[in-house]
Amino acid sequence: FDLVVTSSEKPRFFTELRRFLRVDPDTGLMSNWDRQLEPGIYQGGNAQQLTGYYKVNGDQILYLGDHIFGDILTLKKSCNWRTGLVIEELNEEVDSLQQGRPRLNEIDELMKKKEALELIFFKNDSDPEAGKKVYSEIKTIDNEISRLITEYQGLFNTYWGPIMRSGQEESRLSQQIQKYACIYMGNIGNFRDYSPRHYFRPRRRLLPHEIND
After folding, report:
1. Residue 41 β-bridge partners
2. What does the alpha-carbon distance between residue 1 and residue 14 come to, in Å, rounded to a whole number?
3. How far apart are CA 180 and CA 83, in angstroms?
4. What is the pLDDT at residue 126?
5. Per the omega criterion (within 30 degrees of 0), is the bond before 11 cis?
6. pLDDT tens digits, residue range 110-141?
């Protein structure tokens, strides 16, 4: 690295104009540094001066961290740097998601059948016998869905399940990541197959009224 900053005391590095100390790599001695930054090792400092050193806009800097509050949320609120969150647990979770994909597909298909049967059930409320038969089919599907959900949940952490989900809803962590992190990954090695000039764009998320089933 052409420039290294240690003991930056995040999140103060992003919110306060603290001075840089130049570190002598041979002796470890530090001295106040009030001039334009040069390649070397520093302690402390602030994000504003570091941005000026590279002569770039904040949105041309990608900051990678592994703490949603200390690294990502505070930075996003105080600077205009782009943010990347490293979630180590995601590597194992992606494997679990791939293993569980067939079960989710089965659940989706069963839910479609269940919805169709529910429509028939409410239309046949004048025919008790037909209603009982349809209701029995719905209960059978419910039991199968319950079994598949249990198997799917067993692929994840015993106590809190998937990191980014709370049941069917997005977890609080997931909401914060989507709000404050420009990108997230299991480890920085995920960048290996991409050019430094690659621009990551989010997929367009469909709103409920835009979904055409």
Report:
1. 4, 23
2. 21
3. 7
4. 65
5. yes
6. 999 999 998 888 876 667 777 788 889 999 99
pLDDT of amino acid 125: 67
Q: Which residue's structure tokens are 């050193």?
A: 53
H-helix or E-strand containing 12? helix 12-15
Ordered DSSP codes for 21-75: EEE-TTT--EEEE-S---SEEEEE--HHHHHHHHT--GGG-EEEES-IIIIIIHH
- Give the other-Cβ count within 10 Å of 187's Cβ: 14
What mean pLDDT is predicted for residues 166-192? 89
Considering only CA atoms, which of 50, 56, 87, 40 is closest in space to residue 181?
Answer: 87
CA distances from 72 to 38, 173, 195, 202, 212 (A): 26, 12, 23, 18, 35
- State the first-to-last Cα distance of the chain, in angstroms, to the nearest integer: 51
Diameter of the chain by CA atoms? Answer: 91
Q: Of 62-66, 70-74, 76-80, 209-213, where does the model show the most confidence? A: 62-66
In this structure, how many other beta carbons lie within 10 angstroms of the beta carbon of residue 144? 15
Give the mean pLDDT of 193-201: 86
